[in-house]
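input
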Amino acid sequence: MRLELARPYSPINGPRMSHPRPRIACSVTAVVTLCAPLSLAESSDGIDLTLTNTLPSITLQWTGGSPPYDVYRSTVASTVTDLPHRIADTDANSYVDSPPAGGILFYAVTTSHPKLIIRGSSFQAMRDRAAMEPWSSMMADAIATSNAGYLPGGDNFEIAENLIRFSSASALAYILDESDARLHATRVRDAILDHVDTLTFGSNDWGTVVPPANALFNLTLALDVVYNHLTPAEVAACESKMQEKADEVWTGDWSSAGLGAIGAWDIYRGPHDSG
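output
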């Protein structure tokens, strides 16, 4: 992806740069010099971003992508989408920032994760609640289940149930056990990459339709939760495997299970070309 700076008010040279984090599918990075008003627009991956310099604030407006959105700001282009540089999450298509004066700032707007059943802005409230019962026991159970590792199943139903329990517990532990968030995220990754292939997807009986669809639904939710602590390569591998399995889901008999799994995956993916 390339960016080009528009220069309606001053002869500021506009750099072209590659997006520093290609794993973010719907994103643009913008550079704005605070000494003069300017605007910038560019899109090659889903979001068109415009910056308007209205000192002392900067107004960001964008189209494309799907809410919620994360807004990032950094003084270094290569780190603009690192988590410490996230300044807001919003469902709107605009944001007004009041940055520190002077220097050059880089902005990014991305489609946000998690977005399906919880937002990142709610994590701390959940951690605070886990300090008391019954939530503290729920946290302890989630961490223990994640630490125990995945248990192989004997049949398709048991495999699906074990995947659901392990991935859901690891995702909850990821939220609540902040110091080991990366560790719990890799367990969701491993559930997808190492174990989802043990499921049998079919169309002739309940056992090969409903249990694997339910597992895929829950794995989608778990992947959405831990997304930000996986590397670009890990996200790409997980998404490729999940898409492969989504394409195997049966939507004939017991269609609600299959449609639920496919629908959740489509929402996770966001806007995309058919096929």
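quick obs: Confidence is low (pLDDT under 50) at residues 1-29, 33-45.
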